[in-house]
């Protein structure tokens, strides 16, 4: 029963709605509501200064996208992410934080995604591609475009990127450095466990159903065995009954003679009329 309960809990950990909610929080922040950009929720400790905020503080997808794709107010490329994506909104580093308007412009450039089911395989493949995009330079990890430097200040002279300090090729060093990517990998692993648990639960349900059917068949067979059939001529049961009847009749004859109330008419003691 413990095995069944354990599999049941694993099989029901996520619904489509709860999985989507977990992913939404990876994008907009753990304490966010809805899909509205809030600079105070997407960065760990926002300071409005790009180089500071984009070094170890871009803990969400939204913050990472802003660091990698938002145009800087001065000495910046108008198309930081790729050619053809012309940005009009800019991050005025050191003066003001990225605005929801800036965020909306960035999102507007994203291609419309076709609705599809969230699967462990799909999320794992996505997380793997994103993890492979992290460049490791001098013991740090970077997402984005590096020009002639690694300072994530958003200018074309250095880098338009996010930095993850002490992020190396050693897998243990990566844990906790990119929280939103860690979260995506965790959800993918949980969904894989859930899909396996669903398969196991269905298998156990089928086995229990077969056992129930087998038990019912055996019980019905026992009922048939317990039903006694009527005795047939020559059977030991019937022979015993005949002997008992003869003994009863003989006793009745003896009792009658002793009482002087009857007379035996016959050729001998055992043959009469």
Helix content: 40-55%
What is the count of β-strands? 5
**What's the order of the H and E elements?**
HHHHHEEHHEEEHH
Average pLDDT, rounded to a whole number, is 77
Strand content: 5-15%
**Oligomerization:** single chain
What about the largest sheet?
3 strands, antiparallel
> What is the 3D shape?
elongated
Distance from first to last alpha carbon: 77 Å
Treating each run of at least 4 consecutive H or I residues as one helix, how many helices?
A: 9
Radius of gyration of CA atoms, rounded to a whole number: 43 Å
Structural class: mainly alpha
Q: Which regions have little confidence, pLDDT < 50, spanning 5+ residues?
A: none
GO cellular component, one term: plasma membrane
Protein name: Variant surface glycoprotein 1125.2968
InterPro entries: Trypano_VSG_B_N_dom
Function: VSG forms a coat on the surface of the parasite. The trypanosome evades the immune response of the host by expressing a series of antigenically distinct VSGs from an estimated 1000 VSG genes.
């Amino acid at each position: 029963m413990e095995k069944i309960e354990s599999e049941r809990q694993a099989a029901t950990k996520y619904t489509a709605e709860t999985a989507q909610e977990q992913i939404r929080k990876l994008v907009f922040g753990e304490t966010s509501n809805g899909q509205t950009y809030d600079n105070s929720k997407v960065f760990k400790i926002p300071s409005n200064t790009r180089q500071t905020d984009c070094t170890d503080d871009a803990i969400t997808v939204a913050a990472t996208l802003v660091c990698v794709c938002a145009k800087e107010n001065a000495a910046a490329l108008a198309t930081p992410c790729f050619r053809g994506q012309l940005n009009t909104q800019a991050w005025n580093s050191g003066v003001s934080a990225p605005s929801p308007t800036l965020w909306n412009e960035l999102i507007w450039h994203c291609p419309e995604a076709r609705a599809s089911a969230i699967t462990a395989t799909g999320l794992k493949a996505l997380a793997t591609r994103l993890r492979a995009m992290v460049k490791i330079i001098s013991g740090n990890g970077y997402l984005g475009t590096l020009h002639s430097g690694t300072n994530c200040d958003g200018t074309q002279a250095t880098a338009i990127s996010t930095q993850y300090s002490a992020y190396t090729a050693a897998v243990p060093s990566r844990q906790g450095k990119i929280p939103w990517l860690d979260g995506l990998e965790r959800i993918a692993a949980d969904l894989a466990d859930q899909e396996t648990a669903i398969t196991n639960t269905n298998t156990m349900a089928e086995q229990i159903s077969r056992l129930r059917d087998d038990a019912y068949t055996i019980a019905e067979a026992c009922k048939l065995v317990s039903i006694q059939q009527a005795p047939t001529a020559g059977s030991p049961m019937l022979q015993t009954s005949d002997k008992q009847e003869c003994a009863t009749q003989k006793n009745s004859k003896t009792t009658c003679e002793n009482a002087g109330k009857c007379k035996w008419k016959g050729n001998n003691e055992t043959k009469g009329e």
